[in-house]
Amino acid sequence: MKRFGNKILILLLILFSAVELSAKNVLDIYMDGGPVMHIISALLVIVIILGVIKYWQLTIKEKIDAQRFYLKLKGYIKNSQYEEATRICAQFKKTTIGFIFWSGFLGFNDALKAGKKGVELQQVLQNSFDEAGLQSIPRVEAGIFWFEIIAQVSTLLGLLGTIFGLIGAFDALANAPEAEKSRLLTEGIAQAMGTTAYGLIVAIPTMFLKGALQARADKIINDIDEYSVKVINQINYSVKE
C-alpha cells in the first residue's frame, strides 16, 4: 500500500509539473494558443482535484490489511462469537470490506435470533454479503473513468487547436499582406504546435494516473471477493443443521 501511495504521489507530481515541461514558453503558448489552451488547463485542474480525491479514498479511507482482518475474525467465527466479530467489523465499517463484513454479520445475527437454521441461515448470510457488496463496491471504482475521458478530450482539444492554427497559417499565406505574412504564419504554426503539445502534456500523465488508481481499485475489489468467500465459508462450517 505504501508503494502504491508513492506511485500516486509521483504521478501527481508529474501532473502538477506537466506544464513546467514547457515552462520556457508557457506564457507564449497561452498567448498564441487561443481559448483551447484555457479549456485544456481547466481539464488539468479537474484531473488534479479528482486525483487527490481518489487517492484519499483508495489509500487513506481504504487503509486496511484484508488478510489480517480476516484472520482476526476467523478465531471468533470458529468459537461462534458472532456478536464480537460484528463489533470488530463495526470498527472498520468506513472501509468497503469492513462495511460488507459488518452488514453480513448483522444479517446473520438477526437470522440467528429469528431462529433460522441450516440452509435457510446460510442463504440469509449469502444475501446479506451480496446486498452490502452491491451497495458499496461500485463506489470503489466510481469516478475513475473520468480520467480516461479527460485524457482523450485533452488530446482532441489539442488537435482542434492545431487545426485552428493551421487554418490561420494558410489564411495568412493566401490573404495577408507581404509584410505580415511571416509573422502571421509563425503565430499560426506556434498555435498549432503549442496546443497539440499541451494537450498531450495533460493527457499522458492523466492516463498513467488512471492506470495506477484502477490497479489499486482492482486490488481492493479482489480482496473483498476473496475474503468475503472465506468468511462466508468459515461461518457455514460452524452453522449447525
State the helix count. Answer: 9
Number of β-strand runs? 0
How many domains make up the 3D coordinates? Answer: 2
Shape: rod-shaped
Mean pLDDT value: 82
Biggest beta sheet attributes = none
Distance between the termini: 41 Å
Give the SSE order as H and E letters. HHHHHHHHH
Share of helical residues:
over 70%
**Cα-atom radius of gyration:** 27 Å
Q: Which spans have pLDDT < 50 for at least 5 consecutive residues?
A: 18-22
Q: Classify the secondary structure makeup into a structural class.
A: mainly alpha
Proportion of strand residues: under 5%
List the helices and strands and how they pair.
Layout: H1 2-16, H2 26-33, H3 35-61, H4 66-78, H5 82-91, H6 96-113, H7 118-141, H8 145-175, H9 178-238
Describe this structure in words.
The protein is mainly α and 241 residues long. The protein has two domains: 2-61 and 145-224, no CATH class; 66-141 and 225-238, no CATH class. It is 86% helix and 0% strand. It contains nine helices and no strands. It has helices at residues 2-16, 26-33, 35-61, 66-78, 82-91, 96-113, 118-141, 145-175, 178-238. The longest helix has 61 residues, at 178-238. It starts with a helix and ends with a helix.
